[in-house]
Amino acid sequence: MSRRTTTLPPDYFEDKYRGQIDPWDFRTSAYEQQKYAATIAALGRPRYHKALEIGCSIGVLTGHLAQRCDEILAIDASATAIAAARNNGIANAVFISGCVPQDFPTGRFDLIVLSEILYYFAGPDLTRVAARCADALTSSGEIIACHWLGETDYPLTGEQASEHFARQISGHLPVRAIVHDDIFRLERFARAPF
């Protein structure tokens, strides 16, 4: 399988969601349910004031995160996915369509979640995403990142995306904990020890 060399464009995701509203089986997959449970268990605090979820898809993980957040802002490159997410009735969530790093939301967040999104970026764009995340995080905030470790044709493997992001963010968030590293890698970043 040949690997793509550039960041996947918004049309890639829009075409997926227009073809099937849940193309990765977020609502029904046992893998996804295991990953959501592990992600929530990895959160370092019981409650967050304002969270950002990048690559929220149809809002399934958003619903789980919203239970631990006063507010959550969720963004995805697919307008079709965002329309479906808005229908979930998550009262404390705001869903917006946009493509990071260029449409990175303004504001400060004490939690940023990047679940199975970073390997869609080529290196230079992932570097910009990491910088934007570091700038948007509050001083006591944390970043949760999760990546499937199987083979794809995306610009980066899950492990490459994880390591690239960790290197780029380390000057701002030197504390890194890998809490799951089997089928997927789940990790937490912060400025101070957990």
Describe the structure.
- The chain has 194 residues and is α/β, with parallel strands linked by helices.
- The protein has a single domain, classed as Rossmann fold, CATH 3.40.50.150.
- It has helices spanning 10-19, 30-42, 60-66, 79-86, 123-136, 158-169, and strands at residues 48-54, 69-76, 93-97, 109-115, 137-148, 175-181, 184-190.
- Strands 3-2-1-4-5-7-6 form a seven-stranded mixed sheet, sandwiched between helices.
- The termini are far apart.
CATH superfamily: Vaccinia Virus protein VP39
What is the percent of helical residues? Answer: 25-40%
CATH architecture: 3-Layer(aba) Sandwich
Indicate the structural class.
alpha/beta
Q: How are the strands ordered across the major sheet? A: 3-2-1-4-5-7-6
Amino-to-carboxy terminus distance? 39 Å
Strand fraction: 25-35%
Number of domains: 1
Reading off the top of the CATH hierarchy, the class is best stated as Alpha Beta
Q: Could you tell me the CATH topology label.
A: Rossmann fold
Could you report the average pLDDT, rounded to the nearest whole number?
97
Overall outline: globular
SSE string? HHEHEHEEHEHEE
Number of strands: 7
Work out the oligomeric state of the chains in this entry. single chain
Stretches with pLDDT under 50, minimum 5 residues: none
Give me the number of helical elements.
Answer: 6
The largest sheet, given as strand count, sense and whether it forms a barrel, is: 7 strands, mixed
